[in-house]
Write a structure and sequence with these properties.
Blueprint (H helix, E strand, L loop, with lengths): L6 E2 L2 E2 H32 L9 H18 L3 H13 L11 H7 L5 H7 L12 H8 L9 H11 L3 H12 L2 H4 L4 H11 L3 H12 L2 H8 L2 H25 L3 H5 L2 H23 L10 H27 L6 H8 L2
Antiparallel strand pairs: 1-2
Helix pairs in contact: 1-3, 2-3, 4-6
Length: 331
C-alpha cells in the first residue's frame, strides 16, 4: 500500500479534491441564492433605461434600501444581484459557473458575445476563474501574471498621489531599475522633477559643480549664452540693489565712470586669474579635436571682446557691429 505524499496546505491531495467538490456544491447553492435575490429585486423594481427620470432612480434606491434592510444585506449586494440577474436571463445562466463569474462577464455589452463567452473558458482551462473573467472584460486582475498586468496593478495601487510619490522614490533608489531606463526617459523624468524652480536651481547648481558636465554643457552655444546672460543679469541686479539700499550709493553715483573702470579692471583680473588656474592643468595633456575646437571658438570670442573693450576705452564708443554681436552670442 503506497502512502500519498502530495499535500495542499495541511491536507492530502485526495482530501483537498473532496473539499473542492463539496465547496463547488456550496458555491452553486450560493449562486442560485444570489440569482434568486436578483430576480426578486428585479420583480420589485424592473431595470429602467439609463435615460429615465432622476426621480425614478431615487424610487429604485429607496425600494432597494428597504429590501436590503429587510433581508439583512447591504444595498450594494442587492443592487449588484439585481443588475447581474438582468444581464443573465434564466435560460442563459450556466450551471457550474459561479455568480461572481456571471457578474464579471455581465460587463460584456453585446448579448450574443456575452452568452457565447461564458460557455467557453480560456484555452487550457476547464472552468472560469475570477482573474480569467476579469481579463476577458479588461478589468484589473487579483493575481497579475503578464508584465502589462503587473504594470496595470501598480498604476491602480499608486492612484493615490502620496502612494505614487513614495513608490517612485523607492524605484529611483534602485540602481538596477534606473539602469534599465532609457536616456530619453531619464531626461524626461529630470525635466518633470525640475519644473519647480527651486528644485531646478539646486539640480543645475549641483550638476555644474561636476567639471565634466560643466565642460560639456558649455559646449552648447545656447546654454553658454544663457549662462553668460545670467551672469550679466546677476551683476546688474546686484548693482541696482546696491544703488537702492546702500547708504553710500549717492556718493558712488558721482563716480560712475570710476565704478565702470573698476568693473573692467575686475573683469580682466578675474579672467586672468581663472586662466592662471586652468591653463597649468593642461600640462602633459593633449586635448581632443572637439575640445580644441571649443577652446579656439571661445578664444576667438575673448579676442573680439578685448578688441571691443580697447575701442570703448580709447574712443568712448561702445557700439558693436552685427558680426561681433553674433560672435559674443555664440552664433
Amino acid at each position: 500500500m503506497t502512502q500519498e505524499t502530495d499535500t495542499v496546505g495541511s491536507v492530502s491531495q485526495s482530501r483537498y479534491d473532496q473539499i473542492v467538490a463539496e465547496l463547488r456544491d456550496v458555491v452553486e447553492q450560493q449562486t442560485q441564492g444570489a440569482f434568486t435575490i436578483g430576480d426578486r429585486a428585479l420583480e420589485i423594481e424592473p431595470l429602467r433605461p439609463r435615460s429615465g427620470p432622476v426621480d425614478a432612480e431615487w424610487t429604485v434606491r429607496q425600494s432597494m434600501l428597504r429590501l436590503a434592510a429587510d433581508i439583512g444585506l447591504k444595498l450594494s449586494t442587492v443592487s449588484n444581484n439585481r443588475w447581474t440577474a438582468s444581464r443573465w436571463p434564466k435560460d442563459r445562466r450556466q450551471a457550474g459557473v459561479s455568480f461572481t463569474i456571471h457578474r464579471i462577464l455581465g460587463a460584456i455589452e453585446n448579448e450574443v458575445e456575452r452568452f457565447a463567452v461564458i460557455k467557453t473558458p480560456p484555452a487550457g482551462r476547464t472552468r472560469w476563474s475570477s482573474d480569467d473573467a476579469r481579463r476577458q472584460v479588461g478589468w484589473t486582475v487579483d493575481s497579475p501574471e503578464s508584465t502589462q498586468e503587473k504594470i496595470t496593478a501598480i498604476h491602480h495601487l499608486a492612484h493615490d498621489e502620496e502612494v505614487a510619490a513614495k513608490v517612485t522614490t523607492d524605484f529611483l533608489q534602485r540602481p538596477q531599475v534606473t539602469a534599465k531606463v532609457s536616456p530619453e526617459n531619464k531626461a524626461r523624468v529630470v525635466e518633470e522633477f525640475t519644473r519647480d524652480e527651486a528644485v531646478a536651481t539646486t539640480a543645475a547648481t549641483n550638476l555644474l559643480r561636476r567639471p565634466d558636465i560643466a565642460f560639456k554643457a558649455m559646449g552648447d552655444d545656447t546654454a553658454r549664452f544663457h549662462v553668460n546672460h545670467a551672469q550679466v543679469e546677476r551683476s546688474r541686479q546686484a548693482r541696482e540693489n546696491f544703488e537702492r539700499t546702500s547708504p553710500v550709493a549717492p556718493a558712488v553715483r558721482n563716480i560712475d565712470r570710476t565704478v565702470e573702470f573698476l568693473d573692467l579692471v575686475t573683469a580682466c583680473h578675474t579672467f586672468v586669474a581663472a586662466a592662471g588656474r586652468a591653463v597649468p592643468g593642461l600640462r602633459d595633456r593633449t586635448l581632443g579635436q572637439d575640445e580644441r575646437t571649443i577652446v579656439h571658438e571661445n578664444i576667438a570670442r575673448v579676442r573680439a571682446t578685448l578688441d571691443w573693450i580697447e575701442t570703448a576705452v580709447d574712443t568712448g564708443k561702445t557700439d558693436m557691429d552685427e558680426e561681433l554681436a553674433r560672435l559674443l552670442k555664440g552664433e
